[in-house]
Amino acid sequence: MDDLSKRQRRLRDEQKIQNYRALSSKVLENKVNRLYNDFVFKQTTALLAENPEFYTIWNYRRDIITNHYVPSLPQKELISLFEEELKFIMFKLKDYPKVYWIWNHRRWTLENHPVANWEFELKIVSKLLSQDSRNYHGWHYRRSIIKEIEKSIGKSLALQEFHYTTEMINSNFSNFSAWHNRSKLIPVLLKSKPTTEFDDVLSFLKKELYLLKNAIYTDPEDQSAWIYLRWLLTDDIFVTSISKGDYIEILSEERANIKELNELEKDDNNGLDNNWCLKTLVTIENLLIRFDDKNYQEDVINSLKKLIEADPLRKNMYIDRLEL
Amino acid sequence: MSLYKEKHIQYIKSLDTKHQDYSYWLTEHLRLNGTYWGLTALCILNAKDTFVKEDVIKFVLSCHNEDGGFGAFPQHDSHILSTLSALQILLIYDSIDELPSIDKIVEFITNLQLPNGAFQGDRFGEIDSRFVYTAIQSLAILGKLNEKVVKGAIQFTTSCQNFDGGYGLGPGAESHSAQVFTCLGTLAITNRLDLVDQELTGWWLSERQLENGGLNGRAGKLPDVCYSWWVLSSLAIIGKLHWINFDKLREFILSSQDEITGGISDRPDNQVDVFHTIFGLAGLSLMGFENLAPVDPIYCLPVDVSCKIKRWPYSDTI
């Protein structure tokens, strides 16, 4: 930047700072004086438009709504005020999708809305997640909306949400947020059994393993599916509801599948093992040692030794496991 | 590559002089937190005296509100996050007794606890396992933990645990390294690390390290210097610090420094800020590099400060 444009920028900044500080001190003064009216409400809009992270002003805004609008506006006008508020927040969220304070204000606004439309909110969050499929706030918000809808209709939406995770996973196998959510829904569904798909734990587990096989073969380097696989093979939800014989058969089948995948990977990678195959083989073989007295100790030791070389970032973890 | 210690000290020192920058005014809502980050970074750099103690304490006390809590700036509302920053700063300066009334602060904090044991951040109801940790550390600094608060905090924290060994911001939420730190921190302060599946949690944490040495916050995400703290401190709390590669992480942190202005950014070639500066330095300290002052993984305070905190369970309550 040359000197002239630097000077111009400085001047512009000076003006901006002056305006911002003047507005900010006016609003804070009104807040101290507990002024709650239309005029100060609009001032908070202007200030938050400039700085949506100014949490104290979101607080003040909520107090204005509660103390001024809620007691004074007729129902119809109050509803449109809340609708306007939701639009204002959405506008801010588009620019600042990770700001906790804005998400928090949206939650508050819906919770205090005279006739909150949670179904519409679900559509909005679905749209957001379709554009930013890992947004941490988005997923968290989605779960809270689902809870609200379930409360109001008196019915579980676990099945619908389960299908939603399938959709998200099918469009991108590496979406761990979706795998995670699935892990929270399955226990509910295996208990409530809304369709025959969930009647039998063993056949459900087999179907789930098949979906996972697809994901893993598509990208064997991606950790999302591997982390989820570990859950399917170890959680009590599955382990204690199927017979020991079936469990051992599943573990043995998975072991064979992964060994086969590892061979394919080796062919593609100059004879190098796939690290996730090795890690998962260690997990499965340890389970088979524990549950079926299998003699896989040597295999586990060999895999760990290979991992010390092949996955040097986590070398010490494998060394600790060898010494166990 | 080396650590530009002197540059970082100058960078932190300069932060409160940037009145000509618009962003200085837009970040008032983080000022108290920022002061804690800056001061702790200076302590780690063995340069605590860079800030003028009397000025900082005066500023902290000017953020104290009538409800007993602290806002991030004078006239800003109280929040549990800024309240912890205030207490941490006062503890660093051995000045807890400058507080007009400890009971009032304790009341502010304990009133934020909900029936399920969680803490809301302020009276508007946002719930997050971060706030549980923040409340528990605040009470620990004041020596005012009690059975009821601790029991609820443990109950809520364990309900945030996931199948992968990580913890989320609330029950049902996906595992996230920063939340793992706050949850393990809560369980460490309340002396219940036995409730953690340490092998599984350690494994999930170690898988946060990527080929370039940096750590990420969740599966499949980009690395960021701040996770050098969230992941490392968590590993340290469960005694598995060595489960990631130190040299590669050190390289990642050092390459995120700005050699001209000082300061550390989230990843190489980005804009530096005090948040990433403290967490980069704290990570290096935990790994024992660069002759930095040792930092306590549970409290994110210099060890010679955290040692002043009374450990739970209190012997006089048994």
UniProtKB/TrEMBL annotation, chain A:
It catalyses: geranylgeranyl diphosphate + L-cysteinyl-[protein] = S-geranylgeranyl-L-cysteinyl-[protein] + diphosphate. The keyword ATP-binding does not apply. This is Geranylgeranyl transferase type-2 subunit alpha. Gene3D superfamilies: Protein prenylyltransferase (1.25.40.120). Catalyzes the transfer of a geranyl-geranyl moiety from geranyl-geranyl pyrophosphate to cysteines occuring in specific C-terminal amino acid sequences. The keyword Repeat applies. Keywords: Prenyltransferase, Repeat, Transferase. Belongs to the protein prenyltransferase subunit alpha family. PANTHER family: GERANYLGERANYL TRANSFERASE TYPE-2 SUBUNIT ALPHA, PROTEIN FARNESYLTRANSFERASE ALPHA SUBUNIT/RAB GERANYLGERANYL TRANSFERASE ALPHA SUBUNIT. One of its GO terms (cellular component) is Rab-protein geranylgeranyltransferase complex. Coiled coil: none annotated. GO terms for biological process: prenylation. GO terms for molecular function: Rab geranylgeranyltransferase activity. It comes from Wickerhamomyces mucosus. Its EC number is 2.5.1.60. Pfam families: PPTA.
UniProtKB/TrEMBL annotation, chain B:
It comes from the Eukaryota. It comes from Wickerhamomyces mucosus. Belongs to the protein prenyltransferase subunit beta family. GO terms for cellular component: Rab-protein geranylgeranyltransferase complex. Heterodimer of an alpha and a beta subunit. Residues 3-301 form the Prenyltransferase alpha-alpha toroid domain. The keyword Cell membrane does not apply. Its cofactor is Zn(2+). Catalyzes the transfer of a geranylgeranyl moiety from geranylgeranyl diphosphate to both cysteines of proteins with the C-terminal sequence -XXCC, -XCXC and -CCXX. PANTHER family: GERANYLGERANYL TRANSFERASE TYPE BETA SUBUNIT (PTHR11774), GERANYLGERANYL TRANSFERASE TYPE-2 SUBUNIT BETA (PTHR11774:SF11). Keywords: Metal-binding, Prenyltransferase, Repeat, Transferase, Zinc. GO terms for biological process: protein localization to membrane. It is an enzyme of class 2 (transferase). Its EC number is 2.5.1.60. GO terms for molecular function: metal ion binding; Rab geranylgeranyltransferase activity. Binds 1 zinc ion per subunit. It catalyses: geranylgeranyl diphosphate + L-cysteinyl-[protein] = S-geranylgeranyl-L-cysteinyl-[protein] + diphosphate. The lineage of its organism: Eukaryota, Fungi, Dikarya, Ascomycota, Saccharomycotina. The keyword Metal-binding applies. Gene3D superfamilies: 1.50.10.20. Signal peptide: none annotated. This is Geranylgeranyl transferase type-2 subunit beta.
